[in-house]
Amino acid sequence: xxxxxxxxxxxxxxxxxxxxxxxxxxxxxxxxxxxxxxxxxxxxxxxxxxxxxxxxxxxxxxxxxxxxxxxxxxxxxxxxxxxxxxxxxxxxxxxxxxxxxxxxxxxxxxxxxxxxxxxxxxxxxxxxx
Length: 129
What we know:
Region (Disordered): 56-89
Structural class: alpha+beta
Strand order of the largest sheet: 1-4
Number of helices: 4
Mean pLDDT: 92
Helix content: 25-40%
Largest sheet: 2 strands, antiparallel
Strand content: 15-25%
Shape: elongated
């Protein structure tokens, strides 16, 4: 007699690993879309878009001086530190302190998030922090 043993723990571990990979890949795709669609006066805003994978930390706060293409003036731009996320959560972070103002003028964040939410409605939890 012979038999084959199927290890439930190994299956669960593989499913967990695969689920983490899917979620991390999804947040990267959304972040790429947001960065691509971001307003480009100084390129600072697009540079603060980041995908924070499960178990990862985001960017630290920073301040930079940039030249505005629109006005030609040197402007100071600030970004906020990414919030700490639980180890089982991936997140999209847009750190520029003026990102919400830019989003209200011409949406570039939420359309990308909404597209991901439509594709995987139970996976994407839309929250503003």
